[in-house]
Amino acid sequence: MRILIDRDRCVSAGNCVMSAPRVFGQDEDDGRVWLLVPTPDDDSRDGVRSAVARCPSRAIELAE
Hints:
By secondary structure, the chain is α+β, with helices and mostly antiparallel strands.
Protein backbone atom coordinates (compact mmCIF):
# COMPACT_ATOMS: atom_id res chain seq x y z
CA MET A 1 0.00 0.00 0.00
CA ARG A 2 1.28 3.43 -0.99
CA ILE A 3 -0.43 6.68 -0.05
CA LEU A 4 -0.86 9.58 -2.45
CA ILE A 5 -1.99 12.99 -1.23
CA ASP A 6 -3.09 16.10 -3.09
CA ARG A 7 -2.37 19.03 -0.79
CA ASP A 8 -4.11 21.41 -3.20
CA ARG A 9 -7.41 19.55 -2.66
CA CYS A 10 -7.04 19.35 1.12
CA VAL A 11 -9.54 21.45 3.11
CA SER A 12 -7.77 20.99 6.47
CA ALA A 13 -10.56 18.96 8.10
CA GLY A 14 -8.07 16.83 10.05
CA ASN A 15 -9.99 13.56 9.71
CA CYS A 16 -6.85 11.88 8.38
CA VAL A 17 -4.83 12.83 11.44
CA MET A 18 -7.56 11.57 13.75
CA SER A 19 -7.77 8.28 11.83
CA ALA A 20 -4.04 7.58 11.44
CA PRO A 21 -1.88 9.98 13.49
CA ARG A 22 1.32 8.02 12.86
CA VAL A 23 0.84 8.38 9.10
CA PHE A 24 -0.64 11.86 8.62
CA GLY A 25 0.16 15.25 10.06
CA GLN A 26 -1.17 18.75 9.49
CA ASP A 27 0.86 21.75 8.40
CA GLU A 28 1.07 24.26 11.25
CA ASP A 29 0.62 27.21 8.90
CA ASP A 30 -2.37 26.19 6.79
CA GLY A 31 -3.64 22.94 8.34
CA ARG A 32 -3.32 20.92 5.15
CA VAL A 33 -2.39 17.25 5.26
CA TRP A 34 1.24 16.25 5.52
CA LEU A 35 2.33 12.68 4.82
CA LEU A 36 4.61 11.29 7.52
CA VAL A 37 4.83 7.72 6.21
CA PRO A 38 4.28 7.09 2.47
CA THR A 39 4.22 3.29 2.92
CA PRO A 40 2.47 2.42 6.20
CA ASP A 41 3.05 -0.76 8.17
CA ASP A 42 0.34 -3.38 8.64
CA ASP A 43 -0.75 -1.88 11.98
CA SER A 44 -1.64 1.44 10.31
CA ARG A 45 -3.54 0.14 7.30
CA ASP A 46 -7.04 0.20 8.82
CA GLY A 47 -6.50 3.77 10.01
CA VAL A 48 -5.28 4.82 6.57
CA ARG A 49 -8.32 3.27 4.89
CA SER A 50 -10.52 5.11 7.37
CA ALA A 51 -8.71 8.37 6.58
CA VAL A 52 -9.33 7.89 2.86
CA ALA A 53 -13.02 7.21 3.47
CA ARG A 54 -13.43 10.18 5.85
CA CYS A 55 -11.59 12.78 3.73
CA PRO A 56 -14.26 15.29 2.62
CA SER A 57 -12.19 16.60 -0.29
CA ARG A 58 -10.89 13.22 -1.50
CA ALA A 59 -7.32 14.48 -1.14
CA ILE A 60 -5.99 11.03 -0.15
CA GLU A 61 -5.71 8.01 -2.42
CA LEU A 62 -4.25 4.54 -2.06
CA ALA A 63 -2.14 2.68 -4.58
CA GLU A 64 -2.07 -1.00 -3.62
